[in-house]
Write a structure and sequence with these properties.
Elements lengths: L1 E5 L7 E4 L8 E3 L4 E3 L9 E3 L8 E4 L2 E6 L8 E2 L4 E3 L4 H4 L1
Parallel strand pairs: 1-3
Antiparallel strand pairs: 1-2, 2-5, 3-4, 5-8, 6-7, 7-9
């Protein structure tokens, strides 16, 4: 089974799912096909490549946050492994 995800630019590190994904499901973007590692709800982000802890994550040419842990390709990218680029210092302490 396949679901689709939306990328803004070819160099995006994450894409937004256009439908729910289950582990093992193929996720297709305009330029990538990868396997979902996690259950990921619609409109949440999936990692398109391996992202190291501490790396700045970009989408659409803009930083959206920093990886708080290593994130493998196909993993759900959300508050459990991403610190928002817009978080205040109190939120990141």
């Amino acid at each position: 089974m396949t679901t689709k995800a939306h990328m803004v630019r070819p160099d995006d590190m994450v894409a937004y799912l256009l439908a729910d994904a289950r582990p093992g499901m193929t996720v297709q973007t305009a330029s990538h096909a990868l396997t979902a590692r996690d259950a990921i709800p619609v409109f949440h982000k999936i990692a398109l490549l391996d992202i190291a802890a501490g790396a700045t994550i970009h989408r659409g040419g803009w930083p959206i946050g920093r990886a708080s842990t290593d994130i493998p390709a196909g993993a759900h990218v959300h508050v459990h492994n991403l610190v928002s680029a817009y978080a205040t210092s109190k939120e990141t302490e």
